[in-house]
Amino acid sequence: MLKSASGTLVNVLKRSLLPTTRVSAVIPARLSHGGPVESDEEFDSRYEAFFNRKDIDGWEIRKGMNDLCGMDLVPDPRIIKAALHACRRVNDYALAIRFIEACKDKCGNKVNEIYPYIIQEIKPTLTELGIETPEELGYDKPELALQNVYEI
Predict the structure, then answer these.
(1) H-helix or E-strand containing 123?
(2) pLDDT per residue as tens digits for the range 39-48
(3) Taking Cα atoms as reference points, which of 83, 74, 91 lies closest to residue 53?
(4) What's the Cα-to-Cα distance from 148 to each of 133, 142, 145, 151, rounded to whole Å?
């Protein structure tokens, strides 16, 4: 009798102290969060308004640019122009150049198609703000690179 009671007590303690895993039949389904879907135009307008704020500081500009670079997209020239104006307002020339470089990197393997279009669209803004492209500054070529032996 005592053996039976102690065995029952041990089983009760095991069940109460050890977590149990229950396997149930799960039907895989992708459920959307049900939130509103933003159109491309609304997205562009939101980021353009973000960079056009008069009280924006350097940290917020970097945060907005970092968010854009983390997305799977190439920013619209409207957004790039607004970001360049924001860089000029906080007097951060280097940040403007870095953002243009980041936009070029976001073009991926279509850089020969997309990047010239972007430069064509933002060229008046670059001229107005006195910003040169990375190619004009020579940043597209490594400074200390050795000459290719096949081109000598």
Answers:
(1) helix 111-129
(2) 889 999 999 9
(3) 83
(4) 25, 13, 9, 5
Residue with the two structure tokens 């906080």: 90
DSSP letters for 11-78: HHHHHHHS----------------PPPPPHHHHHHHHHHHHT-TT--HHHHHHHHHHHHTSSS---HH
Tell me the Ramachandran region of residue 26: left when phi exceeds 0, alpha when psi lies from -120 to 50, beta otherwise: beta
For tokens 């049900």, name the residue.
34
pLDDT at 96 over 70: yes
> Which phi-psi region, left, alpha or beta, contains residue 116 (left: φ > 0; alpha: ψ -120 to 50)?
alpha
Residue 6 confidence (pLDDT) above 70: no
DSSP state of 138: T
3-state secondary structure (DSSP) of residue 107? coil
Q: Give the Cα separation of 81 and 99 in Å (integer).
A: 11
